[in-house]
Amino acid sequence: MNPLEELLAAAREIFDRALQECDIALAFDRHLHFEGRTLIRHPSPRLPEISQPLDRFKNVYVLSFGKAALTMLDALLARLPHKLHLRGICSAPQTPKKRNWRIRYFAGGHPLPNEDSFAAARAALALLKHAKKDTFIFFLISGGGSAMLELPRDPHISLDDTIAFYETLVASGATITEVNTVRKYFSAIKGGRLALAAPEAEKLSLLLADVPLKDLAAVASSPTLPDYSTLSQCMEILEHFHLMEKFPPAVREYFEHLQKNVAEAPQSHNGKKDTHSGTHAFEHAQFDTLLSNHDFVNAARDHAQSLGYKVVIDNSCDDWDYADAAKYLLGRFHELRREQPRLCLISSGEVTVNLGKNPGCGGRNQQFVLQAAFDLARYPGEPLVVFSAGSDGVDGNSPAAGAIADPTTIERARSYNFDPEATLARFDACTLFTALGDSVVTGPTGNNLRDLRILISG
């Protein structure tokens, strides 16, 4: 194996091994277990131990939604004590072949909601109406849940309007935190409203965090945690990205009405109407993070070190434009490898892409890698590799998780009659990388811990 082939294999191996180490079932066992019919949540530096006897509750509900919904649900069901009066809702990318008869399954849409997203949300809210003090609720929440469990607060807003609303947000260039802030004011689920639908019930939210740990409320737009954003922040985002004029009329009218009426109403501590603050609902709520991007990055670091690479972690370009992120990371990469040739620079989080009117097939990871490939082309013959892929196994509207590039990528693309500059401009990187055999294809992983970028030299 020549040095370049070694690097290509190492980058893929680091990513694959990090995913394996972030197994959801193992994460459940690290965080909680059952002693008979008593739930024990293990203590952590941030959270105390909890001992909760489930036999004192008449009903136990499970609501699981997001890209990892099936994996999280199966892990919990395998550990729950028997003979509980259990009911649940699951909205996942697909429905399973083998179903638990006590769970209603929906195939929610992502990145855009679909009919099942609405149906799952209605079913969840209907179930929670029956939750009283004698009910314990497990909320299993992972990234992608924003679209997979969705219902507008305004019943006059249709699914088509909601899809157009999502498309406008996703293509706006706003960060995921900004997008989620807007979604919280649109949705009957987000911004803590799912928890508010069962104010008296005891609740435990278990999160698979596809956001920075400092911003856990952004997971699936915070359906079960208190929301401390304000309407003024939401409106500032809409104004900054000129979104109001791009929304469908029904959505635009809703936000205009919301702004007018909330401005006239008494405000709670978080800038909302007192009628929505409902802080007592969160007195009966606990949460824990089963896995986070931090775990994913650490697993990648450990394996890269075991392969003999000097590892540097740099997450400072999270939420940057993909081109700016590529320029920054490659500049750092070239500087660092002068002192340490056998280098692995790891960067996590997500970059942003402002899509054109008619984008092709691809996603932010492949767009980042193609941008980086132009830089690598300036170093012919050198063992350099750039890798980027999503932990969920999905990158944008493509069947790939991401892509990998080396100094030969641009030259090989031209030999296949591709115009790499034009391909980049029309956001069609998947076709190029597929033709070169450099797409990273995992299929849906049942996990979601953000993206991983690996810049490696030997």
Structure, described:
By secondary structure, the protein is an alpha/beta fold. It folds into two domains: 24-292, Glycerate kinase, MOFRL-like N-terminal domain (Rossmann fold, 3-Layer(aba) Sandwich), CATH 3.40.50; 308-457, glycerate kinase, domain 1 (3-Layer(aba) Sandwich), CATH 3.40.1480.10. It has 17 helices and 15 strands. It has helices at 3-21, 24-31, 69-79, 115-128, 145-148, 159-170, 176-186, 193-196, 231-240, 249-264, 274-277, 293-306, 322-339, 364-376, 409-415, 420-425, 429-436, and strands at residues 32-35, 38-41, 50-53, 59-65, 86-92, 103-107, 135-142, 202-209, 285-292, 310-313, 343-349, 384-390, 402-405, 439-440, 451-457. The strands form three sheets. It has a six-stranded parallel beta sheet with strand order 6-5-4-7-8-9, sandwiched between helices. Strands 10-11-15-12-13-14 form a six-stranded mixed beta sheet, with helices on both faces. It has a three-stranded antiparallel beta sheet with strand order 1-2-3. Helix 7 (176-186) packs across helix 9 (231-240) and helix 13 crosses helix 14. The longest helix is centred in the N-terminal third of the chain and has 19 residues, at 3-21.
